[in-house]
Amino acid sequence: MNRRLSGATLAALALLCFPSVAYAHVGREAGAGFLAGLMHPVFGLDHFLAMLSVGIVSAQLGGRRIFTIPATFVLSMIAGAVVGVRGYEWPFSETGIAISVVVLGVAIAIVRENGNGWPVMIVVALFGSLHGHAHGLELPKAADPVYYAAGFVTSTTAIHLLGVGIGHFFTTRKSLAALLHHMGSAMAGMGLMILLDAMAPK
Question: pLDDT tens for residues 88-114?
């Protein structure tokens, strides 16, 4: 990997904490990179559903895990992105991303308030690294790798917050709490469809 990308990796890590500040002084190329990174998780159904599920399940567990579980995903995603930027291929990465939607959907369906969050934390760390790796492989192709990284981290955080909001809305209303578990089952079913499509011969 060339020096430009190595430097971009380090710069991206520094900018991830201040994406809006970074975006305030960009040119056309950097703006395109930021928007591409911002849109990638939104229009990638597998990415979107997995990240949304992380927010929902963290709200279901409650307490500090509302913050620690999404933060674990983001940090693991950054680590996976660094590996992807450096050009290391992981086997079955796309399949693993599809499986993440299934597993996180099942988690929404079965988790209970104040349940044990460690299994979820471990699963989120694993799948976060897979999603980050997929993003990292796209970085060298982006108009501006640094702003692309800032974009996808900003988007991921926003999707997590959306999931937390959904989870909080349903878990704080007893009449709707059961519906959230059904939503998890539907999410797992959608993940299964994505998985079957990923495994189908191309």
Answer: 778 777 889 999 999 999 999 998 776
CA 59 – CA 78 distance, rounded (Å): 22
- CB burial of residue 63 (10 Å; 0-12, 13-18, 19+): exposed
Give residue limits of the domains in the chain.
3-14+44-199
Cα dihedral across residues 117, 160, 20, 151: positive or negative: positive
Residue among 138, 102, 137, 109 nearest 123 (CA): 102
CA-CA distances (angstroms) from residue 141 to 40, 46, 92, 150? 13, 21, 21, 15
- Its pTM stands at 0.80
CA distance 28 to 32: 6
Tokens 């959904």, located at residue: 166
What tens digit of pLDDT does each residue of 169-200 get?
A: 999 888 888 899 999 999 999 999 999 988 87
Among candidates 35, 9, 32, which has minimal Cα distance to 132? 9
